[in-house]
Amino acid sequence: MNHTTPGPVAPGKRMLSEQVYAHLRDAIMRGDHAPGDPLKPQDLARELSVSLAVVREALVRVVGDGLADRLPNRGFAVPAFSDRRWQELAEARRTVEPAVLRLSVERGDLDWESRVRAAHHRLARTPAYVPEEGEYYSAAWSEAHRVFHRTLLEGCGNSALLETFDRMWTASELARRWSAYRNPGRNGAEEHRRLEEAALARDADTAAEVLAHHLSQTAAGLSGCLHDRQDGPTA
Q1: How far apart are CA 36 and CA 53, in angstroms?
Q2: Tens-place pLDDT, residues 22-42
Q3: Which residues contact 80 (CB under 8 A, 6 or more apart)?
Q4: What is the DSSP letter of 136?
Q5: How many other CB atoms are found less than 10 A from the CB of residue 3?
Q6: 86-115 pLDDT, tens digit each
Q7: Which of helix, strand or coil describes residue 131?
Q8: Helix (H) or strand (E) run with residue 217 in it
């Protein structure tokens, strides 16, 4: 009996799947799909004029990024504000990242100092919001933000700890955007400036304290999202 193995995915189909994945990811990040909203493959396939198989493949990837959930009935949905994972992630980050920053401040060399300065300069000069990208943080600012936080920790010289940071950062990206949107009065620029100053002054205690507070503010903003939904709109 002859057995055949499936051939490679056609380049055209692979490119189409990549485009649909990027579209869904960006739409969720922009807030086009509200927290808790269902992501119906049939509706998305019709809207995007692609096959159901392409949409499902893209949705599975979005689930892997932590931007959607796969439901027991095999449907998909945007995560909800009330999901316990957000508070667990916040607790994990407040536990791990200040400790890694302490190591980074103690071990970082002159090259690390230069990269921290450059990363903070880029973050401070990048617009946080642009009209064409919706109500949440812009993609350029989000990337500059990630690079700044990671650069602060890179002085630790421990790849396992940095990989842990990378996983937690990706998993919490959606909650971070929700939190910022619901806490517009927060002075994040000042928090980042204080982080840079404390790190470059080699003040590990202050740097860790400022970072812990910074992460707590994000969690508090997300809690505000939940309260707003429970209590109704506010003025």
Answers
A1: 23
A2: 999 888 888 888 888 999 999
A3: 35, 36
A4: S
A5: 4
A6: 889 999 999 999 999 999 999 999 999 999
A7: helix
A8: helix 204-231
Does residue 143 contact residue 74 with C-beta atoms inside 8 Å?
Answer: no
Strands (E) across the chain are located at 69-70, 76-77
Rounded alpha-carbon distances, angstroms, from residue 6 to 3, 9, 10, 17? 10, 9, 11, 18
How far is Cα 221 from Cα 227, in angstroms, rounded to an integer? 10
Query: Are the beta carbons of 46 and 5 closer than 8 angstroms?
Result: no
Residue range 51-97, pLDDT digits in tens: 999 999 999 999 988 889 998 876 999 988 777 888 899 999 999 99
Neighbour count for residue 207 (Cβ, 10 Å): 24
Residue appearing with tokens 């990837």: 61
Give the residues across from 76 on adjacent strands.
Answer: 70
Query: For the chain, how far is it from start to end, CA to CA, in angstroms?
Result: 72
Q: Is the dihedral of CA 11, 14, 18, 20 positive or negative?
A: positive
Q: Environment class of residue 30 by beta-carbon count within 10 Å: exposed (0-12), middle (13-18) or buried (19+)?
A: middle
Cβ atoms of 36 and 69 closer than 8 Å: no
The C-alpha atoms of residue 234 and residue 25 are separated, in whole angstroms, by 29
